[in-house]
């Protein structure tokens, strides 16, 4: 996935001077890379870049030995009429004697893949091995996949523009030129200039606002991979929720965010520290982003990004934040060296998340959440087929394939099952916690491959190595990593039976005969007292069985529709998907109302996909026309793509929709189609409902 030649250099530090220009939707940047060549006279430095990133100049400077300790300043142009000002200029601190002069460098940009370019910077010929030097790149970035600009009306307060970055997996090459691979880590610092009144935050251990200069300063003291350099700016206000944590949110959301998380985050951090050793990032803050945030949550170090839409679904909020807390050890401190082994981050973080929830909320709740997720894994397995190559833990990335396409439940849940299996081999979860603590201590701030984890495991448990547990027939470590299909073994979830058994019982009632008797028995069960994950699991089972007999849907609606309508969005979307998949017209007004109130990908795409698969395409089109002005352009394009595919096929769509529009249905409004296809949009091969997981 990386076109960069990282193995020829050691990256010591990177410095960013950034100017946010929301009116032009442009970021102007100056990047100072501090490097050493690992062998003499390298001809060129090859970095990952992107067509959205326009390079203005490249320069070379011999660096003093302590360059990383003396950050440079950046000079920003004064705003004014006329053409856009140039990117910031670096201003290096005066060294004793003469300051090393900068000399210009030749560079070229070549196509690499559809998600990036390759930037080659020619280096001076006399460069010695291990001699520190700096490369200075000045650039502007517009329409970058990593940088999401929101107009004020796409925020809750509608007062100020908002911008955030999302680097996972390979988007940050459009934010700044870099070695865009998880194998390369370095410390970083940044100076950011933003419009007046806009608060800027970054994934950094230290931050400060210099009022007289009107700029924000950031420093990350621990080495991180490029994808974890993150920025957010907008009308954000803070509130402390613990001794080392605060939430940042738009003012109207702050009271809710504070009340939901006050005290809880410290409880989770302390539980994680008891299990896996000291939290090493200093602060653990959380910023709540507008609904346009394209995923649920992202584990940016020191500053978890999370979508505000999840605030109303308490149990999902708890699990998502604990998952990001777990990433502080697994993913951020110890990182998968390649995207082909993403499970090393996600599988271990999911295991750690469940150890934390067991310690904090008990085994029954953890087993319920696990059952809910494994259910979703098997649903995805049916969708993709048991021989799908993406169901392997060690996925082979073909050249040019975007690793973001590997973000699926296998990475999380099959990865979790393998880690759980390892914990069972040693017979005691506490001893396995001790192993993971030692693993983090050994590999922190580096990147690893699966063999590092498995070798460490067998070294830590020599008795298991003697028993050759890695070669047990049918459960070989090699088979876990490279076989397609479901996990080779799944955890015993019987400790959750007090919560999962009622769900099974109610589902069985609704699929039993005679219906009136079953409905009467079912109505005696009060699901308003259930946990969110119980209700979601029940609705998922009904969804799996859809289309259901019409009289069953009618009875379900009579029994639950009004009650579910008062519950959180995670519950409501599942009920509304049942309504849509069963063409149940009496409840369509609820679908309309839900889509009119939602602006996030996770609560719109699944419904539009279902609407366009069945007989409700014209309804979907009508609702989209009424709501599209409130959607982020990226989401608007994704929905347009779904609608154009749905309108263009008179038969049921294939499991992998074509990106081309087929013949129009005779009764379709051709103007509507032309309008829909006005923008290109990425295609989505599988339903996102089953991959709504945190990063």
Automatic annotation (TrEMBL):
Residues forming the Peptidase M1 leukotriene A4 hydrolase/aminopeptidase C-terminal domain are 498-643
Binding residues for Zn(2+): 323, 327, 346
Checking Gene3D superfamilies in the record gives:
3.30.2010.30, Neutral Protease Domain 2, Peptidase M1, leukotriene A4 hydrolase/aminopeptidase C-terminal domain, tricorn interacting facor f3 domain
Has the keyword Zinc been applied to this entry? yes
Organism's domain of life? Eukaryota
Catalytic residues in the record: 324, 412
How does the cofactor bind to this protein, according to its record? Binds 1 zinc ion per subunit.
GO terms of molecular function: metalloaminopeptidase activity; zinc ion binding
User: Mind telling me which SUPFAM superfamilies this protein's record contains?
Assistant: ARM repeat (SSF48371), Leukotriene A4 hydrolase N-terminal domain (SSF63737), Metalloproteases ('zincins'), catalytic domain (SSF55486)
Region Disordered, annotated ranges: 646-669
Q: What is a single Pfam family found in this protein's UniProt entry?
A: Peptidase_M1
What are the entry keywords?
Answer: Aminopeptidase, Hydrolase, Metal-binding, Metalloprotease, Protease, Zinc
Where is there biased composition of kind Low complexity?
649-660
Q: Name one GO biological process term.
A: proteolysis
The family assignment reads: Belongs to the peptidase M1 family.
> What protein name applies here?
Arginyl aminopeptidase like 1
* Gene name of the encoded protein: RNPEPL1
